[in-house]
Design goal:
Layout: H1 3-13, H2 23-43, H3 48-71, H4 73-83
Helix pairs in contact: 1-2, 2-3, 3-4
């Protein structure tokens, strides 16, 4: 991932100036990673090892979303709307 893209994603989703690891930031980074991998599979249909990594990323993002929904439902709804999930 390009450093500029990663920094812009962190900038858009952080809670405070030094926030790089909150659930919102991690969900946004995983969503970008998932989107790039799905584009990769358009031209590399038999890349099964990367497909396994995609499934792991999707499950990790799902767990973060469940955590966020349980702890801060308003922030969850805002993040889902901002990232166009569900």
């Amino acid at each position: 991932m390009a450093e500029v893209t990663k920094n812009s994603i962190i900038e858009k989703n952080r809670k405070h100036a030094n926030d790089t690891g909150s659930a919102e930031v991690q969900i946004a980074l995983l969503t970008d990673h998932i989107n790039r991998l799905t584009e990769h599979f358009d031209s590399h249909k038999k890349d099964y090892s990367s497909k396994r990594g995609l499934l792991k990323s999707v499950n990790k993002r799902r767990r973060f979303l469940e955590y966020l929904k349980h702890n801060d439902e308003e922030q969850y709804k805002a993040l889902v709307g901002r990232l166009n999930l569900r």
